Amino acid sequence: METATSYLGFHLPHPFMAGASPFGYHLDTVRRLEDAGCAAVVLHSLFEEQLTARSGGRIRHMAPPDAAFAATAVTFPNREDYVFGPEEYADHVRRVKEAVRIPVIGSLNGTSPASWVTFARLIEQAGADAIELNLYGIATDLLTPAAAVETQYAGIVREVARFLHIPVAVKVLPFYTSFGHAARQFEAAGAEALVLFNRFYEVDIDITHLTAAPHVELSSSSELLLRLHWLAVLYGRVRPGLAVTGGIDTPEDGIKAVLAGADVVQMVSALLRYGSKYIQVMRSGLEDWMEGHGFATIDDMRGQASLERALDPAAVERAGYIRTLQSWGH
Ligand SMILES: Cc1cc2nc3c(=O)[nH]c(=O)nc-3n(C[C@H](O)[C@H](O)[C@H](O)COP(=O)(O)O)c2cc1C
Prior knowledge:
This protein is an alpha/beta fold. It has a single domain, classed as Aldolase class I (TIM Barrel, Alpha-Beta Barrel). The chain is built from 13 helices and twelve strands. The chain has helices spanning 27-35, 48-56, 69-73, 86-99, 116-125, 146-163, 179-189, 224-234, 251-260, 269-274, 278-293, 298-301, 313-326; strands at residues 5-7, 10-12, 16-18, 41-47, 104-109, 130-135, 168-172, 193-196, 204-206, 211-213, 241-245, 264-267. The strands form three sheets. Strands 3-12-11-8-7-6-5-4 form an eight-stranded parallel beta sheet. A two-stranded antiparallel ribbon has the order 1-2. A two-stranded antiparallel sheet has the order 9-10. β1 (5-7) and β2 (10-12) form a beta hairpin. α4 (86-99) runs parallel beside α5, α6 packs parallel to α7 and α9 (251-260) packs across α11 (278-293). Flavin mononucleotide binds next to β4, β5 and α10.
């Protein structure tokens, strides 16, 4: 069985890798991932707000003298609450690179063009093999059209990709009216891979204290279907590689992701839940399935469940939607 795959120009023995997470904080945990057979690792993110706070004292557009600044600023972590400051992050990348041989991908996280290039370069100079840009933003301004947000995001990708020699992957939320078009814009801007998708971390309301109540819950397989859907739509129709993140919990989930079109399968919740050795369970589950279904290489199976050959993918989508509703009670 040949489970080898390529991602961002790296030849990987299999598609299972660690997504951005606290696994990246410590050399020991990254080493453990490598020892467990993890194909590559994305480090936790350096946040734009850390960069702007450090360079000009601002968080997003807010400067300390702004009247409204104090109330909003306290909702962001303090500078010292981040596990790594910007320079420490670059040093950390350097140490991780010295400690492991698997590809190490740095992560930058934000939504505006500020400060990115300088820090992307620092991370590149520190030896990162690639950068994942996480464009996690929720457009709450009622006057900004979707196209303007997409143009801004594509502009960030372009700016970073233009100044770096290492490949740039782009991780996004799924909420676009026409995600396929947005994907093409990221492609044109120089993205070498699309990472589908950020989870939307909805903040709950604490009705006792009347405050926002943020919390992270680990994902389950139920989140995967949205990702499968977009992998299937994009496979064979965009140049960037495709990574899935969100809802990979079992070997079956990994198999579905590759069948839909994924080049690599990023995992976080499952590794936190079952430990780094779970990578081997994923890999052998894939191998057994390939053997049982007569696929000699992963390239043969990738995209078999995609819409690449559909003459009218939108009609397939509509038909699936109507059939799903009709299936109730049958
Ligand atoms: C505790 C925790 C910390 C995370 N930190 C980051 C981060 O720093 N940057 C990032 O892009 N994603 C981060 N993520 C999101 C993961 O990379 C991943 O996209 C998400 O958890 C969905 O994948 P999963 O279903 O395999 O968990 C984090 C997730 C968790 C659970």
